[in-house]
Amino acid sequence: MIPTIEWHGDRVRMIDQRKLPGRVARFTCRGYRDVIRGIREMVIRGAPAIGVAAAMGLALGARSIRTRSPEAFQKRFHEMAGEMAEARPTAVNLRWAVERMARLVEENEGRPVREVQEALRRESEKILAEDIAINRAMGRHGQELVPPKAAILTHCNAGALATGGYGTALGVIRAAHEAGKAVTVIADETRPWLQGLRLTAFELMEEGIPVTVIADSAAGSLMRRGEIDLVVTGADRIAANGDVANKIGTYSVAVLARENRIPFYVAAPLSTIDSRIRSGETIPVEERNPREVTHFGNRRMGPEGVAARNPAFDITPARYVSAIITEKGVLRPPYGKSIRQAMG
Question: d(Cα 152, Cα 228) in Å, to the nearest integer?
Answer without folding.
Answer: 6
